Amino acid sequence: MSTIKGISWDFWDTLIAHKDNAEVKSVDETRAAFLSELLNVPFEKAWSELKGHLPEEDGDFAQGISVEKRFEYLADKYNVNFNIEDISQKFSSISIKHDIGLVPGVKKALEETKFRLVSVCNTKWTKGDDLRKLMEKNDITRFFENCYFSDIGHYAKPSVKAFEKAWKETINLEETLHIGDNLSKDIKGAKNIGAKSIVCRVVKKKPNIQDEIADATIYDYEGLSALIASIMGKTPDEKWEVIGKGTPVSNIKRIASRCGNDIGNIIIGDIISQNQASAIISTGQNQQKDIPGIYDFDGDISKLSEKSLLMIDFTKGLVFKKWER
Which of 45, 82, 201, 223 is deepest in the core (most CB within 10 A)? Predict the structure, then answer.
């Protein structure tokens, strides 16, 4: 049985998110145009610099690079002169001037958790100080013992040092769980410290077969408590009830999602016409490639509405439903 005493939470698309993909694109295009003019390079080259990484910020010993350091690098590379401090602040503020708010359901999840909490953020073009202000604006800073930003702390996920500094070495990292949306930074980082992990797809709904490297995948924060209970080898609380079991066909261990036909939802029935489901529950034998499923389901599918919230534990072949009372 696993012990979890604390949860570290990623930042973008896990706690905080832009309104939609169009908003994200607008921010990126604004920044690329800014770089294009500043460096006197084509838009495409500026876009490449915007999306690129410095070598020291990748890998298991990733460093946290400040916005100022990034502009020092660009000024030297393109042999241009500008006030690095002023430009860095202007560039950092571009993102937070847009429509940014909390990920759906995350504040309630924070209010209800009984675990110790820290946030861990790999910063890039937005300063940690600005991101902290964004957390304060959305009234979530109070939930966390520490809000760690890589440009301030000098280490970045998946480095063990980033998690050690986030927790200030006050907890056994193997007794923590990390929630994040990036497999190579968040989930790899959790593995590096021996922690459990949950891939967050609440914002980026599109399923990924590689989510199997985590202990669970979440598409709706209302399912968080059930996933954590399952990861710890416990039965979810009385709000959750086993509605059936079946033969699991999945490398993904656990999923919490709604029923329905939208991307990232659990499909109920024997026929599927698209491959964007998070899972399938079927009374038949058909096994859809690359989509986790519970087959030969012995529960009553007719009692599941399109918006039913389910947690599937593929390790045990059990399907739980959260009852709305």
Answer: 223
